[in-house]
C-alpha cells in the first residue's frame, strides 16, 4: 500500500499541498479529483520524486521514499505517467518503450506482450516517431512505458486529458484489467468525473491543497462532494 502522510509541499513561498494524507491500496483504483490548480499534479510529483515535500512522508510497502531520487522510486515499484505524457517526440515508439528499461534488472529488459494486448496500436506503430502519434496514442505509449518498468503501483496524472472518447474507453479498460489481473495499485488524478465514477474503488477530492472529501465512488454524487467539483 502507498501511504501519504501529512504532506506539505511549497513552490518558493507558495504552498501547494497542505497536510495531505491518503492511501492507495494494492488491487484497488484510487482516484483523486479536483478542479484546476488545487494541487493534484503536485501530489503526484511528490510521490514520484519529481518535487520534494517540505514536510510529511510517502511510504510504499513499508519503504520510506522521502529523499529517494525518481529512478530509485521506480525501482521500488512506482510507475509514473506524467501529465502531458512527456513522450520523446523524435524517438520511435519502440525506443520510447525501451526508455523504461533503466530501473529494471537485465533479465527483465524486454517489452512485455501484455502491453501490446492492452494497446495493439503500439505494436503496429513500433517504428513510428513518438511525436507522430495522436494524443490518445501517446497516452497509451506513456502508460506502456510505465508498465515496462514492472510497477507495483501505477500513478497517472489526468490520463483522459485532451483524448477522444473511444481511446478514453480503451484506457479505462486497460486500467481495470491491470487492477484485476496483476493486483497492482492504481492512483490517478482526474478532472473527468464520469471516468472516476466508473473506475474508482475509492475517491478523494482536493481543494486548495487539502483533502476535503473521501469515500466510495458512489459518494461523488452527494451534494457535498459536488460542491467541491463544480466551477
Ligand atoms: N513549478 C511551479 N512553480 C510555482 N507554482 C506552481 C508550480 N507548479 C504548480 N504551481 C502552483 O501550485 C498550485 C497547484 O498546482 P498543480 O499543478 O499541482 O494543480 P493541479 O490540481 O494538478 O492543476 P491542473 O489540473 O491544472 O494540472 C497551483 O496554484 C499552481 O499554480
UniProtKB/TrEMBL annotation:
The keyword ATP-binding applies. Residues 2-231 form the ABC transporter domain. SMART domains: AAA. InterPro entries: AAA+_ATPase (IPR003593), ABC_transporter-like_ATP-bd (IPR003439), ABC_transptr_urea_ATP-bd_UrtE (IPR017780), BCAA_Transport_ATP-bd_LivF (IPR052156), P-loop_NTPase (IPR027417). Keywords: Amino-acid transport, ATP-binding, Nucleotide-binding, Transport. Transmembrane segments: none annotated. GO terms for molecular function: ATP binding; ATP hydrolysis activity; branched-chain amino acid transmembrane transporter activity. GO terms for biological process: L-amino acid transport. Belongs to the ABC transporter superfamily. PANTHER family: HIGH-AFFINITY BRANCHED-CHAIN AMINO ACID TRANSPORT ATP-BINDING PROTEIN, HIGH-AFFINITY BRANCHED-CHAIN AMINO ACID TRANSPORT ATP-BINDING PROTEIN LIVF. This is Urea ABC transporter ATP-binding subunit UrtE.
